[in-house]
Task: structure prediction
Amino acid sequence: MARLKLATLWLGGCSGCHMSFLDMDDWLIELAGQVDLVYSPLADVKEYPENVDVALVEGAIANDDNLHLIRVVRQRTRTLVSFGDCAVTGNVTALRNPLGLAREVLDRSYLDPGNYRPQLPCEPGIVPVLLDRVQPVHAVVPVDFYLPGCPPPAARIRKVLEALIAGRTPMLDQSDLKFG
Amino acid sequence: MPVKTLTINGQLVSAREGETILEAARDAGIRIPTLCYLPGLSAHGGCRLCLVEISGSSRLQPACVTKVVEGMEVQTHTERLNAYRRMIVELLFAEGNHVCGVCVANGNCELQDLAAEVGMDHDRFEYLHPNRGLDASHDRFGIDHNRCVLCTRCVRVCDEVEGAHTWDVAGRGANSRVITDLNQPWGESATCTSCGKCFLACPTGAIFRQGSTVAETVRDRSKLEFLVRAREERQWHV
Ligand code: SF4
Ligand code: SF4
Ligand code: FES
Result:
């Protein structure tokens, strides 16, 4: 059987879910023996490849970069997993939504508190443009599986990966469904 | 006292006359999810999580306010009820701002537990992300309206157990919110005795202790139960 092609992504999140991924400790060595990590913030790959089997997506959709990438990922991936609360609910990344649209959020963050020539960051092509609303991944593209937690504990991530590698649909019971 | 016999999920259960389906189920060790219900307070029937099916009736009934009847056949977890319950919890999450990972009540929240119990792995509704405000004017407690599910437990405990009636509900529909006194800052309330019973009763992170941060909420509900037992049964044993 061909080795499973695994990707992990870091969108609008804090990387805590990836930290928790690394917390799987020595099982990572076993994992490395069973999958090819084809795209990840932990690997030096520039382009999201074709025919990816499983993608763990950390983070919410917060800027135009996230939006573009998640559409490409959806097209090129068989099983897309919302990985952690920001991907699943918007969570901390979406805390800005009650403040208003992108411009109001930027004003509040860069102009209001600034006391020495405050200005908004603007580098077209380099600094991604904020979307007006932060959204969970499933509000933008279809998601195949949800892995909640802020961050999901390492054991929960492992359970899901083990099932996916074995070709089974992962099942999370009540104790593993907790947000937060 | 006359005894009524009924079945819950096919199991034969006997209950005292005047008991609710919820009480009969709990006595028999059958769990029905609840949110606005708190033992010792009057039942409110507002959250609808405890809805059950009763044979011969096409309407779903809230178990916390429906009295047992001889021969009643009750179902607590049909596919339809499970689907509605999950939907109710999803709506509660979508209409407020619930960010469990950074909430004072993380790990000690009835709403968070309910989400797991009803199998909510994501929310199918669009989040409203309201800006409902927070009142931190009280010395010892604060209220974050973004986390409030309008269960009215604070209103009832303050009125029925403390006797202060500081809390009430103002507004309608999605604009409803709990208020202190005549919608004055909590810290300036003339009626609040600072007893903390509303904090003990609140199921979520809406009412919190000043100075507590993420996941630091600890509520000792047995204190409330002790008070209620003392009042109702005149028993003061600790
Ligand atoms: S009140 Fe409960 S459900 Fe809401 S954010 Fe806090 S822990 Fe989560
Ligand atoms: S503040 Fe807490 S107890 Fe009061 S209505 Fe809101 S959720 Fe219920
Ligand atoms: S617990 Fe019965 S309606 Fe809320």
In short: Residues B 143, 148-154, 178, 201-204, 206-207 surround iron/sulfur cluster (ligand 2) (CB under 6 Å). The two ends of chain A are 37 Å apart (CA to CA). Residues 4-97+130-169 of chain A form a domain with the Rossmann fold fold (CATH 3.40.50.700). Chain A has a mean pLDDT of 96.
